[in-house]
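Is this the right way to post structure tokens for a design question? Let me know if I should format differently. Anyway, here goes:
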């Protein structure tokens, strides 16, 4: 008779039968929707009186404030587009100013060369 031996050996429980009492698994999706009204929409949750809806991978506030959450999202997106367009236009302006500076410098050089040619031809006469 061991003092610290393994005296506890529970019996193995038989595996459970997976018999469902519901026949929902036999119905196709459209029948389940008609019979049980299972229309799955976007997930919605309420936190602190604010209703949030999950649309297109983002949580969007549905209530509260003067502007709706969708309107705020749309305005943020439009603001980002306008900032990108503004940056592109600034780049174009810088490029045009560089081109104008180069053309002006070339024009001044040509005027100087023309004056030198005129002065040189006057000296020969």
């Amino acid at each position: 008779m061991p003092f610290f031996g393994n005296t506890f050996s529970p019996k193995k429980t038989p595996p459970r039968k997976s018999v469902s009492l519901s026949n929902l698994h036999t119905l196709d999706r459209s029948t389940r929707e008609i019979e049980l009204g299972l229309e799955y929409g976007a997930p919605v949750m309420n936190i602190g009186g604010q209703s949030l809806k999950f649309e297109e991978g983002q949580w969007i506030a549905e209530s509260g404030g003067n502007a709706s959450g969708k309107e705020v999202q749309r305005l943020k997106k439009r603001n980002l587009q306008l900032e990108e367009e503004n940056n592109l236009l600034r780049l174009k302006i810088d490029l045009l100013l560089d081109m104008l500076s180069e053309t002006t410098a070339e024009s001044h050089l040509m005027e100087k060369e023309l004056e030198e040619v005129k002065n040189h031809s006057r000296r020969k006469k």
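Format looks fine. Someone answered above. Worth noting: The mean pLDDT is 81. The longest strand covers residues 50-55.
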